[in-house]
User: Fold this.
Amino acid sequence: MVKLASITGRPATALDASCGDPGPLTVARIDEATCIGCTLCIEACPVDAIIGAAKRMHTVLAAICTGCGLCVPPCPVDCIDMVAAGRAWSAEDARAARARYGARNRRVAGRASLSAGAAPTDGARAQRQATVAAALTRARARRAAAARAK
Assistant:
């Protein structure tokens, strides 16, 4: 707290107990037998420490998990526990976590901008659907004409 206060230029204050108690570094652990592969934990992880695929089990990369616990609340089957990491948090851990957090935010923002530009894709989809509908109409008309000719 003293170091943070000196960095921010604010007076040092006591930790707010409502935000949790300070303690050793924890990391998320997924009970792989219970995991249903919903991907909600992957979406919630701010540093991409959880890997897996939809409808497949997920796992946590403990070496890069920051122990934030943001993956726990969205889990619908309660298969994520926070366990002791068995190591201390280092300045290098903090640097790497900031870099992963930034990379994730850029990737998510890129997806959002692609989604925002989806109107032409929707227009292209409508054009394809219209083309298919016209082809079906022509095919049905040919079939009907062939049936009448018999």
User: Anything to note?
Assistant: The chain has a mean pLDDT of 87. The CA atoms of residues 43 and 119 lie 24 Å apart. Residues 119-149 form the longest helix (31 residues).
